[in-house]
Amino acid sequence: MPTREHSRVQRNITVVINQDYAEQFEVLPELTVRLRETQFLVPDLAIEDLSRPNQGRYPGPSEPVFLCIEIKSPDDRLGKLFSKCEDYHAWGVPHCWVIDPDRKIVWEYTPGDAEPRRAEEFLTGPIRVALPDVFRGI
Asked: Each residue of 36-57: pLDDT tens digit?
């Protein structure tokens, strides 16, 4: 089950994206995404590129979002979260972030990466978030 730190990270990222990127991206917490007819996942945060609105209804969307964010809960295994990123990439999601609030570590993962890359100061790409902002209040 998610912790207070998990919730704070989710809130912090939502605030930053809504402040800095509201015209370009929409933050969708706990959105069920349909990877295949019978495969569904629920990223902690799904980020939609507003220039390419997603189609589909529940359970949906039926088209890939721009970014999926997984925030580690105490009972999660990192390998499982990275495996979810592989599923998101196979579906067409170009960016995935995995965040460990307890250790204050963040990984970025794109389809072309051999393995996830640890972010040192910022999450990068079209959405740039400073790590102190991710972990504010933790």
From this structure: 777 788 899 999 999 887 665 5
Please state, in angstroms and as integers, the Cα–Cα distance from residue 47 to each residue in 30, 38, 75, 79, 93, following that order. Answer: 11, 22, 24, 22, 10
> Amino acid letter at 85?
C
The answer for residues whose C-beta is within 8 angstroms of residue 123's C-beta and 6 or more apart is: 97, 106, 108, 129, 131, 134
* This prediction's pTM: 0.93
- What is the number of structural domains in the chain? 1
Is residue 45 helix, strand or coil? Answer: strand
Strands 122-123 and 117-118 come out as unpaired
3-state secondary structure of 125: coil
Can you give the residue range of the structural domain that contains 127? Answer: 4-134
Residue 89 dihedral angles phi and psi, to the nearest 5°? -65, -45
